[in-house]
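Justification of resources, computational component.

The compute hours requested in this renewal are based largely on the per-chain cost of generating structure records like the one below. Each record pairs the submitted sequence with a full structure-token output. That output is archived, and it is also reused by downstream analysis tasks.
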Amino acid sequence: MTTNPKVAIIGECMIELSENKGQVARRFGGDTLNTAVYLSRLSAFSPYYVSALGDNDPFSQEMVDAWNSEGVDTSLIQRLPNYLPGLYYIDVDESGERSFFYWREQAAAKFWLDQDCSEDTLAQLMTMDWIYLSGISIAILSDESREKFFTWLAAFRANGGKVAFDNNYRPRLWQSKEHAQVAYRHMMGLCDLAILTFDDEQDLFGTDTPQTCIDNSHQSGVNEVVIKQGSNPCQISYPEHFLSVAAQKITNVVDTTAAGDSFSAGYLAGRLAGKDPQASAEIAHRVAGTVIQHRGAIIDQQFMPQIG
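The structure output for this chain reads:
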């Protein structure tokens, strides 16, 4: 893979509220933004983040300032009048498992493909080596915008670009399971690297085993498939190879909010730096294992592991 790549990560960042011992903390989070920040910390390049925010509110500007400080390139962020970022609240139980509550119906990020400036954004994205997105990235779009985006992704790949996709299925964002299934099947036919949470595949498609998930992905045309299984070994399949890579045992699980997002960042960082899938998965487990020992989606820089 390219060792000095141009990578754009597309999605939504929201205002995050979480409670700990009666104290509510405000941060920023979102699956793809979490991946962008961790990828920036782990890499020698600055990934672009592609989304939309408000143009006259303190939260949006704080987000942009924070992302810039993390080395994330914000030049493709749209600032939309009369819109605000979405908001979510995390409830974390005693075992570290979390539940989410969202306020996002009119979030700016839902409308990034509906603006006059969208064509310019897409033209700039066509110069990227890699596009990374998630199931949430496509779920928040209208049907019309999603089809427009799928058409653009096909053109991007025909132009030599590569696409990475994390399934991250959230049922409440879809009209129905059948509606989501159609979109996901279309998306899987447009990606080169799929990083899939097995639980999500079970929820969406009723997939019975990780191997079935791998087989279905390859049949869709995906070249490299990574199956995330939490604390269990991840499974990786690419032409003529199959790997099962164990995660280190973590006894101090505090908050699993960004476990999958940080895993994806670690795997991408390894692969984009020229490491093989085995080494990349080991990095991914190490990063995710560190993140879940701290509260919040994005942990303090001082706690980041050294990946070599």
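The CA atoms of residues 89 and 101 lie 5 Å apart. The first helix runs from residue 31 to 42.
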